[in-house]
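Dissemination and training. As part of the outreach component of the grant, students in the summer workshop were shown how a complex can be specified as a set of sequence lines and then modelled as a single object. The example used during the hands-on session is reproduced here so that future cohorts can follow it. Participants entered these lines:
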Amino acid sequence: MYKIRKAEKLAENIFLMDVEAPRIAKSCEPGQFLIVKMDEKGERIPLTICDYHREDGTVTIVFQIVGASTKKMAELQAGDSFRDVIGPLGQASEFIHEPAAELKEKKYLFVAGGVGTAPVYPQVKWMKENGIAVDVIVGAKTKDLLILEDEMRAVAGNLYITTDDGSYERKGMVTEVIKDLVQNQGKHYDQVVAIGPMIMMKFVCLLTKELGLPTIVSLNPIMVDGTGMCGACRVTVGDQVKFACVDGPEFDGHLVNFDEAMKRQTIYKTQEGRAMLKLQEGDTHHGGCGHCGGDE
Amino acid sequence: MGDVLKKVPVREQDAKVRATNFEEVCYGYNQEEAMEEAARCINCKNAKCITGCPVAINIPGFIHEVKEGNIEEAYKVIGKSSALPAVCGRVCPQESQCEGVCIRGIKGEPVSIGKLERFVADWAREHGISPEKPASTNGKKVAVIGSGPAGLTCAGDLAKMGYEVTIFEALHEPGGVLVYGIPEFRLPKKGVVAPEIENVKKLGVKIETNVVIGKSVTIDELLNDEGFDAVFIGSGAGLPKFMGIPGENANGVFSANEYLTRSNLMKAFDENYDTPIMIGKKVAVVGGGNVAMDAARTALRLGAEVHIVYRRSEAELPARVEEVHHAKQEGIIFDLLTNPLEILVDDNGWVRGMSCIKMELGEPDESGRRRPVEIKGSEFEIELDTVIMSLGTSPNPLISSTTKGLETNRRKCIVAQEENGATTKEGVYAGGDAVTGAATVILAMGAGKSAAQGIDEFLNGK
Ligand SMILES: Cc1cc2nc3c(=O)[nH]c(=O)nc-3n(C[C@H](O)[C@H](O)[C@H](O)COP(=O)(O)OP(=O)(O)OC[C@H]3O[C@@H](n4cnc5c(N)ncnc54)[C@H](O)[C@@H]3O)c2cc1C
Ligand SMILES: Cc1cc2nc3c(=O)[nH]c(=O)nc-3n(C[C@H](O)[C@H](O)[C@H](O)COP(=O)(O)OP(=O)(O)OC[C@H]3O[C@@H](n4cnc5c(N)ncnc54)[C@H](O)[C@@H]3O)c2cc1C
Ligand code: SF4
Ligand code: SF4
Ligand code: FES
Ligand SMILES: [Mg+2]
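and obtained this result:
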């Protein structure tokens, strides 16, 4: 059992938890993920490792409610436990292997969208710990959905926040901020790292390709084992099929087939929808509505 | 008394009924039937059957005890050579092993060795008979990676010799393929696999799940920081292959590993569990091995019409005869001498069919089987919504790529000596599918046994 030390609501439908997982805390690096399984009947849910405390033996996860399993997870409190936590999985971000001197010469831009702020955070933090100040763009739908602002501010060089509705700081998409920085403010970047919803990463990549900025993205396809055993997570990168859980999750964004990846994310849409309805309606739902399949 | 040339028939669940559930297909013998079948064994002096068994179970020895009704004695005889008899009795390819060379088989049907072994193991479990924990340990620690048949056997044998053994398993349940691959209807998890794992634990073996060696901790760290004196790698061959044909990433194309893992390990067939599985209307399973049969029969039980698409003919099907027979009884359709060319995809990215070509058998290839060759102009399409690729698996490079000095061959298999499992790295042993590539439960067990011997010799010499 893996005890939850802290459970906190960051924003509507977004939660942070510190979980005891000493082996993972000891060996994980930025860019890696873990898998949690709530209980006997639960799914294996992949989540990025958003922070880690090696001495404490804890790791931090941040997740958003998008379906039945994350909804159940959100009900867990400090003191509760996950039945299983597996990891760290996937490859660490490439930059941690680069010689410090070379890395210091490079200009990095991190672009985070929505809950993508959480996986970007440990990377920016790592940079800061290694004496590198990087630019960070964080995009959120609206002010209330912005997460980890103070944490990010503490580790970023320049932080640019934008909201779709203009309720806080800039108004507009992250792509507009990239354009502004590069085209109007004359900034140059050797490497962009973009993490967020698949559609956001796709549009960032279309733009950065045009601007000639190498871009790394972190993919979140459907996974089961997370160790290379099932192939559910396969994505097309260039002319190769890769397993995101072992070859990634980070890839050269200019080579990723996003359209295929987005289609593959919807494989279980119908069943996921049913599971959510069942959860929402609980015992009061006995089918017959003709929509959810509960009467099948 | 029945016909002495024939096996005492075994009771099975009716094919029509079982095609809709996940209960075990075969009921096995009761004691009366087992004793009658045991009487068919002529207790050969030069018992061929033993040479056909990879772990050399004293087959006439245990069968004799069954004939006399001494089932506990029979269990002890088997226990000297095999740690997982309830599993092997169910899933060994007996027809090409022990039973394949049984003298009785020359004139009639061989003795039903597998079913007798299964009966003995089930009887022992039902009567609460299990191995005993050794009185004391020798203070030496061995790490075993992977909890499949190779790892369980190696761990069990080492524990019996007095070692302190910890198994590290990447998944959340121990058992390897026995748990994630082979379906419930062939090998019940709670009823059969779990008790066999409990038996290994009763010997004092610790099992730590959720540890991915090479990620959570490396082999070098186990040896240098965690105080292990030796390591056994039994990590299997879990990496699925795909064909590389167009359309293979469409929604509705799965590896057999994914499909089976969802159903077996995650219990997606049971709606009380949260993991989803695609319930196809018309499913093609590409391949002809045990894994293909298991995937096909799982899809059938979930409610689909299922076709096995295999490029050679029935005689070359690598699956066990019994499984092919059961699959046919249940209504799986065999599209033999057929090879997929492309998976056809609709506008939304979903499988809508598969274009295939007819094959004929030509000259024999390296494997001695006649090579299938395409018949020109015989292309045709089948309509489908699901395709399950079952083309074999290879060892996962997670461990070899994170362990210095551990050599692999060109098939990515870990190089290890057959007699003692020694790898190219001192103190590190390996066996099972990780060394041989995908093979069988009993061969993996045999390798785990040899490696336990090898590790014991190594640590005693130290
Ligand atoms: C490497 C990786 C890192 C991730 N990191 C985070 C993170 O830090 N924070 C966060 O909120 N989410 C993260 N995700 C996504 C998260 O795993 C899914 O949101 C979650 O599994 C949804 O489960 P559900 O049952 O609540 O929703 P469902 O209704 O079942 O699914 C909603 C959508 O989530 C995706 N999904 C469903 N099941 C899986 C699965 N087993 N594996 C992957 N995706 C799935 C699908 O696109 C699906 O359509 C990550 C995914 C991956 C692969
Ligand atoms: C669907 C299917 C049906 C089969 N049917 C039959 C049959 O009828 N008869 C028969 O004899 N054989 C059958 N086989 C083959 C047989 O199951 C295998 O040959 C046998 O299980 C191999 O045993 P193993 O111990 O070497 O590996 P596995 O059983 O594969 O076990 C390896 C274990 O190691 C774990 N592992 C892997 N990497 C790591 C890591 N880095 N860290 C920690 N743990 C790790 C895995 O999660 C797994 O649990 C079948 C196989 C499949 C897939
Ligand atoms: S272990 Fe397998 S090969 Fe050996 S006797 Fe039993 S069924 Fe036959
Ligand atoms: S070969 Fe057949 S008949 Fe002879 S001892 Fe073995 S099982 Fe009995
Ligand atoms: S999640 Fe199974 S191979 Fe990647
Ligand atoms: Mg879900």
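The mean pLDDT of chain B is 94. Students were then asked to discuss how this feature might be tested experimentally.
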